[in-house]
Amino acid sequence: MSVSATDQQKNLSPPKIHPLLRFILVRIGISILLIWGVTVVTFLMTNLVPTDPVAAILGDRAAADPEIVAQTRDRLGLDQPLIVQYITYLGNLLHGDLGVSNQTRVPVLESIGQVFPASIELGIGAILLSVIIGLLLGLLSALKQNTIVDHAIRTLSLIGISAPTFWIAAVGYFVFFFKLRVVGGAGRLDPWLTPPPRVTGLYTVDSLLAGQMATFTNALGHLILPSCVLALFTIGLLTRFSRSSVLDIIKLDYVTAARAKGLAPRTVVFKYIFRGALVPVITVVGLAFGSLLSGAVLTETVFAWNGLGQYAYRGATTLDLPVIMGVGLVIGIVYIIVNFVVDLIYGFVDPRVRVR
Questions:
Q1: Which one of 89, 200, 285, 320 has the fewest beta carbons within 10 angstroms of its own beta carbon?
Q2: Domain, as residue range, for 273
Q3: Is the pLDDT of residue 148 over 90?
Q4: pLDDT, tens digit, for every residue of 186-203?
Q5: Quick check: 171 pLDDT over 60?
Q6: How many independent structural domains does the chain possess?
Q7: pLDDT class for 269, splitting at 50, 70, 90?
Q8: Structure confidence at residue 1 (pLDDT)
Q9: What is the rounded distance in angstroms from the CA atom of residue 199 to the CA atom of residue 119?
Q10: Spatial separation of the C-alpha atoms in residues 279 and 64, rounded to whole Å
Q11: What CA–CA distance (Å, rounded) separates 5 from 273?
Q12: CATH of the domain at 116
């Protein structure tokens, strides 16, 4: 039996890649390029700052000695051309070396590993509150459009967006800790408690893994207030954005058709309206989560929450270049990973995205 030319062409053609797999591979490639771009941007912006890091390291008296300054520049490699410094920096990154802090002489990667879990714990608590409350308020506001409920929710969301974070943190700390004593004080635990054995660095998780319920309760009590303060802005943002998105979906024909079929109102709201409005909201959730994970300096300062934000602030005020570049790189990677996850969620939620 002879084989037709069409069949031969089909047999010789390479196997087609599943649209979802192709979608994931493309996003991985883009993420790798973006990470490389982050290394370039953080290196250039840090090294082009019009100040002398050697003077910040040595102090005024030592910086007045040219010999000490020359030795310090040679030790740090600051006497080399920028391109040579960048190649050295990139080579160290490939070996997992973010450098050593000029102030504490502790490896930057080690310090970030100590403080980043605190920001993760705070960010997860804040984003969970933001998503649950913000989306529900936005949905309710859209369904009750131009009613007193709608106006009240929009006013509250505007206050959440506009109120200064440091003021809310200070007021919340004074009222709920000093006056009412319903939440924990500064820090992640009470001073007389010992942190649980480190597994993840998240005190709430590690205390549960160790079976220390008293430590878990105390850590959760310390987490509630800063998470609520940090979530207020994001709640206001998600409320307003989800309301706008839901109002756009309500006007579409397929929602009108679903109602005309006589479907239950709950089915129309959650299966048709809410699901359709969720896709653009995911972007805002991803960006907000990246922002929360990258560190909230004011909130961490008020509540003495030793996270990435405070670590970055200390590095910036002392002009500690390895710390500044390390934190900048970590923050950039956090945003890239969050955006990658958001793109994957797009692919699963909306098949049209992965087909394109």
A1: 200
A2: 110-321
A3: yes
A4: 788 888 888 999 988 899
A5: yes
A6: 1
A7: confident
A8: 46
A9: 16
A10: 59
A11: 50
A12: 1.10.3720.10
SS3 string, the chain, reads CCCCHHHHHHHHCCCCCCHHHHHHHHHHHHHHHHHHHHHHHHHHHHHCCCCCHHHHHHCHHHHCCHHHHHHHHHHHCCCCCHHHHHHHHHHHHHCCCCCECCCCCCEHHHHHHHHHHHHHHHHHHHHHHHHHHHHHHHHHHHHCCCCHHHHHHHHHHHHHHHCCHHHHHHHHHHHHHHHCCCCCCCCCCCCCCCCCCCCCCCHHHHHHHCCCHHHHHHHHHHHHHHHHHHHHHHHHHHHHHHHHHHHHHHCCHHHHHHHHCCCCHHHHHHHHHHHHHHHHHHHHHHHHHHHHHCCCHHHHHHCCCCCHHHHHHHHHHCCCHHHHHHHHHHHHHHHHHHHHHHHHHHHHHCHHHHHC
Supply the angle between the helices 19-47 and 82-94 in degrees, to the nearest 10.
130
Give me the half-sphere count of Cα atoms (radius 13 Å) on the Cβ side of residue 119: 27
Contact 279, 346 (CB under 8 A): yes
Q: At what angle do helices 321-349 and 275-293 cross, to 10 degrees?
A: 170
Residue found under tokens 């479907």: 263
Asked whether residue 199 is assigned to any structural domain, the reply reads: yes
The verdict on residue 43 lying in a domain is: no
Closest CA to 224 of 305, 155, 114: 305
Max distance between CA atoms of the chain, in angstroms, equals 93
**pTM over 0.85, yes/no:** no
Of residues 133 and 173, more confidence is placed in 133
What would the pLDDT profile of 10-32 be if each residue is shown by its tens digit?
555 555 676 667 777 888 888 88
Q: Is residue 219 part of a domain?
A: yes
- Give the whole-angstrom CA distance, residue 148 versus residue 146: 7
Nearest partner of 320 among 127, 143, 104, judged by Cα: 104
Asked if 240 contacts 134 with a C-beta cutoff of 8 angstroms, the reply is: no
Query: How many angstroms separate the CA atoms of 18 and 191, rounded?
Result: 55
Residue 205 resides in a domain: yes
